[in-house]
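Closing statement on the adenosine-5'-diphosphate sub-project.
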Amino acid sequence: MGQDKMTVGLVYGGKSGEHEVSLQTAFAVMGAFDYNKYEIIPFFITKKGEWRVGGRLSAPLASLDKLKLEHGAGDTSAAVQLLFSGLSGSGKGLDVVFPLLHGTNGEDGTIQGLFEMANLPYVGAGVLASAAGMDKVVMKKLFADAGLDQCKYCYFTSSSWERNSHEHLQAVEDELGYPCFVKPANLGSSVGISKASNREELIQAIQYAFRYDLKVIVEEFVDAREIEVGILGNEEPLASVPGEIVSSSEYYDYTAKYLDGKSQMIIPAELDTELAERVRELGIKAFKSIEGSGLCRADFFVRRDNGVILINEVNTMPGFTPFSMYPLLWRETGVSYAALLDRLLGLAIERFEARQNLEFENGVQ
Ligand SMILES: Nc1ncnc2c1ncn2[C@@H]1O[C@H](COP(=O)(O)OP(=O)(O)O)[C@@H](O)[C@H]1O
Ligand SMILES: [Mg+2]
């Protein structure tokens, strides 16, 4: 009977600020699988970036600590060998991989590239969409191209800042004014982000953001409700009901997101039907604009003064514990956590198969 089950490689941990969150997600996901249908092979990536691979599981591991695979696990080369087993002719060890990683190296196209090289189906966005969804500037250019409204912004690299800081400050003041938001272009979880209300604060905020990235984006401040929607699918994606984030602090910073537990998620968001429908449509548009696949969470600002809907960002690997916005939005829409896992694995296989028959060489045989 074992052969009928699908083998899922669950990849979690990672050399990232969201290592612990990823472990919690993996523990929840592992507990929610239907083990009549799936077998799991756990792949843990340590904070140093080393891999550990465990044996085939037909039941979840008993504790979060066990997910670190301390005893008897295979090392990085064993993990890589297993990932590439379908290519090396040593028998296909995995049917699909499910990366539960956030941020750098997990959500930015790098690990997706590894799975592409190994010719493995994987859950979620491909290389391009992952990379685009990680870079706030590239993302904004794609949104603009799709005709989505967004806040005004400027951006510059650190070398350009070194050379022309005065011009950049002037441009921010002329085009955006105060207050404004300063962000590293490529991080998530509100890391490196600050609000500036005058030139002195702006300079500090820019210097701070450059500690985290070589490219910084500055945005006009928008006084808005934060509305998020879950997207699920490939070519014809569906949108969940929208939810609202009510932050415990002035804005949704790292503390408000992860530490104080006081921020609220209101699901579904209290929006009139027309506005809710519009947000769902725009969420799908945002997903398509980055060429998403599988899943994403699209985050919007709805201006308090005039109700205009602005896209803020998309997350191609949104928080995925059972208490995170994305799964809760789908639960409210009628898709349980376990059903969501089924659907995501199905979408990974569909995307893989659709690409299998593509030709990669020019010529007639
Ligand atoms: N332009 C802006 N105007 C007002 N608030 C903002 C703006 N940009 C970000 N914020 C606040 O900062 C939070 C984090 O910014 P965001 O761009 O979503 O970064 P991250 O990728 O880290 O989630 C948002 O959830 C929101 O509360
Ligand atoms: Mg955000």
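The chain has a mean pLDDT of 92. With this model delivered, the sub-project is considered complete and its resources will be redirected to Aim 3.
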